[in-house]
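RETRY 2/3 - previous attempt timed out on the joint model. Re-submitting the same 653-residue input unchanged.
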Amino acid sequence: MNFRKMLLASAALACAAMPIQAMADTAAKKIALSNNYAGNSWRQAMLTSWEKVTGEAVKAGVVAAADPFTTAENQATEQAAQIQNMILQGYDAIVINAASPTALNGAVKEACDAGITVVSFDGIVTEPCAWRIAVDFKEMGRSQVEYLSKKIPAGGNLLEIRGLAGVFVDDEISAGIHAGVAQFPQFKIVGSVHGDWAQDVAQKAVAGILPSLPEIAAVVTQGGDGYGAAEAFAAAKRPIPTIVMGNRQDELKWWKEQKDANGYETMSVSIAPGVSTLAFWVAQQILDGKEVKKDLVVPFLSISQDTLETNLASTQEGGVANVEYSQADAQKVIAEAK
Amino acid sequence: MKKVLSSDTIRLLIPALSLTILLISVFYLQPRAMSYVGLNLLFNLAVPIALATIAQMLIMTVNDLDLSMGTFVSFVACVAATFLQATPVIGVLILAAAIATYAALGVLIHMRNLPSIVVTLGMSFIWGGLAVLILPAPGGEAPAWVRAVMISRPPFMPMAIIACIIIAVVSHFIIMRSSFGVILRGVGGNARSVERAGWSILGVRAATYALAAFFAILAGISLVGLTTSADANIALRYTLLSIAGVILGGGEFTGGRVSPIGAVIGALTLTLAGSFLSFLRISPDWQIGAQGAILIVVLGLRLLLNRLENRGKRS
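RETRY 2/3 succeeded.
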């Protein structure tokens, strides 16, 4: 009887200990990146960051593999098939930048049911079993107005440059900017144009609306449009207001030139493409058995007057200012969410 | 290969052969796929593609081409995830209206002698616009019964395989065995002689378009069953996939010469080709090219067999 009890107890102990042992070590785990699109500088930087950071992690033995996959066409059905293939390939975690927030839910559910950890970032998925690393675009818009309220306490007229009409991100950032204006009523939006996140489009749009506008104190933007706005103001021979930049290399370069010439002051804010590496570390932490909230918020990358030079130096010609995340950064983000 | 095999069988031989070869290579690369769950994962997204391919094949049978297939399936997916789920009666009415619209398109194309490519291209914008109106932001929810069917796990054979067999058999009977099918293929082959024999080509065209719409609707509904929710752009790829599926399965652009079983096999082959390339770890830059190469190889093989067949007839 005693012997049997002991046997039972040891068996129970082994059972209890086994999952912990398996969870505490991710060296044998394989993580895949499912990416829907690689056709612009931001996505290219995202993939480069992934390869750099995960390459080191694999070499250091943190995980067994971290393979990136990109679909040939930016289509949800194709990405769903890609995710189902990853299930077959036996990955332990799938990190997703999704083509659609909802159309992948079926495939994501299949993955969860197969015991796979799914972490989505940037283009997130709504399936409840997946983790989401979302960007607080509203706060990104609001923080611009907050910065301006410190720089120009008296307030003034604002020109808003929006992104691509009908896209979720554009609505969110714009809503944030309007919330900021409500919070700091000394500012007033006197004009709004769509710059489509492209310098040439923004320049044309701003040049078109400028003659009808009163004096502008500042321009609030969404990224990829600040340099075009500056060009439009210069061409119209109007004083250049405080233009909030969006971390693009051409914007930072222009800012640096102005800073050197006349002490121009502004800020720059956008999402770092290296957020893919944050998603990687979060997936690794989950595989490691850490308890992680399903919804995490990624910090955005802002550049101030003091950090301009270092960021400009590390940004490639035609690229976007980037930051790669470490395991410690991921642990910090996870801890903050609790 | 003399008189034992009919030309229809030879037509089916190449698609079946290419599917088998692809399947063996996939099993070799990824032995995990050789299981009940694995086969289901490999093929479940092929079910809506197979249905869309059958719809496209019907249109191609009467010598037309439907360039709105992808947007129409997307539209149906949006209806299925919203109206069909919340208010089934209205949902069914909308889908019935869509079938009527397709029949009217058939009539229009026939009466005014319009090129179907232009009409359906125009319609693709209308379907796309309607889909965005119904579902401005991605979302919606699949009706519970659709979801239950699509994730069901019947014994012995995965749902995806059973569904494909049913699609192939049903469409084979409609097109190759029924009297309607004979007239249908006749219209594509030689409309004038069918007309002289006393059949209404107008009626046949309208019925064909309506039937195609019915299959496309099944495609949209089954797609939503798999994805659980919809997106106005969810199935844009289906236009080209469905045409490629028909051609890969032994059909031809010059009407009347089609094979329903081949079309389903063609759809499966296209789906499998994607997985095969993904298992091979080919970089995305090359994937479209590699997919094209697979298509060219299969079509080249068919051309070769056609030539052998013709030579056999002459001598």
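The first helix of chain A runs from residue 2 to 23. Closing ticket.
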